[in-house]
Amino acid sequence: MSDTAEVTRVDAPTRAGALRRVAAERWRWIVLAALFAAACYAPFQLVPFRVFQFTMVLVYAVALLGLNLLVGHAGQISLGHGAFFAVGAYGAAIMLDRFELPYPVTLPIAAAVAFVIGLALGLPAMRLRGLYLALVTLAMAIFLVPLLKRFEEVTGGSMGLTLPKPAPPAWTGLAEDQWLYFLALAVAVAAFLSAYSLMRSRVGRALHAIRDNEAAAETMGVRLSFYKTLAFAWSAMFAGAAGCVYTWVIGFVSPDSFAVTLSITLLAGLVVGGLGSLSGPLLGGLFVMFVPSISQDVNEAAPGVIFGLLIIAVMYVAPTGLAGLTGRAAHSIRKTLRKE
């Protein structure tokens, strides 16, 4: 047998695998384009309350995207993500109420402030790991509410701050709820594209190496403290951006809206949605938004019990989260289509 024939035989499986990956990537972008088209079409077909709910799904998805970066990709634990969400929300509210800045200006500033605070808190926190890190981040969420109530002249104290919502430009012809939805959609798309690019870069590979084996990653030259701290700061930045959009959508902020239960709910939503996957934050946002309301409808006396049971049921059916479940379903469909 000639050398050329031997090389051709060896390279054939490699080419077939490459073609399958290209085809899978093509289908992934086709599905994403279809979902984006459906997302743009939805607010014109839904009642205002449903539009509001899906707007909040996008807000929570951006916050969970940051939490996924820290927990799912970097392998760190955080029970204080709601604190950074509150930093973005209150930062935007104060800029709008005290300084009367334009709405678009508040978004990058709120994200930057959250990034700096996340970086400052990440430096000492990254010396810890596991349960110790979880306790430190939990403490952040616990002391935030009394801190916001303490500075009443700035934050409005227990009464909070009431703000006007962004008005849609006349040329759009959109209602207020539709305009807020598209603002949240634009921020969510930009956030997901940024996270996608980040995870496919050298930084993403470093975070994955840290998550899988810190000792091996350090041996390969990955600076653990540097990337862990950056992951903490980036996670805070996404949460701050989500908090800013939250202020736009709700038009009101108060300390009780950012209690420690928010951080726990966000972490539960991410685990249910799927750690380490790009679709996990979106599925988690759907879970965080709709499951509590469903629990309230099922049993008004004990919605928390129903909420907990639903989490247990989802994790029993899909241990890797809803993203893993949908991924397996999509793989089965592709496999069936290839057989036909």
TrEMBL record:
GO terms for molecular function: branched-chain amino acid transmembrane transporter activity. The keyword Metal-binding does not apply. Pfam families: BPD_transp_2. The keyword Transcription does not apply. It is a multi-pass membrane protein. Keywords: Cell membrane, Membrane, Transmembrane, Transmembrane helix. Its main location: membrane. It comes from the Bacteria. GO terms for cellular component: plasma membrane. The chain crosses the membrane at residues 29-46, 52-71, 78-96, 102-123, 130-148, 179-199, 230-253, 259-289, 301-318. InterPro entries: ABC_transp_permease, LivM-like. It is found in: Cell membrane. Signal peptide: none annotated. This is Branched-chain amino acid ABC transporter permease.
